[in-house]
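Handoff note, outgoing to incoming analyst
You'll be picking up this chain. Sequence as last confirmed:
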Amino acid sequence: MSYTLDLSGRVALITGASSGLGTQFAHTLAKAGAAVVLGGRRVERLKTLRSEIEAYGGDAHVVGMDVTDVTSIRSAVAHAETEVGPIDILINNSGVSTTERLLDVSEESYDYVFDTNTRGAFFVAQEVAKRMVARAKGAAPGTYTGGRIVNIASAAGLRTLPQIGIYAMSKAAVVHMTKAMAAEWGRYGINTNAVCPGYIDTEINHHHWETEAGQKLISMLPRRRVGQPKDLDALVVMLCAADSDFINGAIISADDGMTAA
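Most recent structure output, in case you need it:
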């Protein structure tokens, strides 16, 4: 006996799709059958990703989006729904970080992190949810009512880590935001959940794991390893599938036991 999670017929918007986890999520949902809308500022990279997905028969579309600009968010979501159809799934993934002690944090770096990780994530989810709620009320076209919102938080949102206090604060806000959204939007069939990844090896941090500091950090992890982007595949697809209808407001750690101790 086999069990399959099929996203065929669904439209998924992935923010921050031009690199790292966003790129992985785009491939994963496309292979599960969803039409994926690739959102981000680096449009040329998004076009390359679209070509990669189309090469194996996936359905991908590109929208330029700056999550720190509410006008850009609204325009991108409207464009996506006009070109592809109503958005059924949101992977709210855009994120940035800085490495600095709290005494050194400037107003500029504080705003840089919070504008993307917290404010941006909120207004992307709000814009998508407005349309999902309208469909649930019969006030907007679409055969599928309800939806799935997956906010990508962080293990740092559950456990403060050295020198990334501002990032941790921003992701802790995303955790609480997820619960608020789940409570308020669940009545419309919208399931909102958060994934809290631990240390994942991506192009942004790959070089760090080979340094002395990186190796020291790895030695302190429960199983002495960092994750790979594909390690989140099964969890993300499950949260997007119709089969996860009873999972709402969950904050799920995917950190190899890092926050369990």
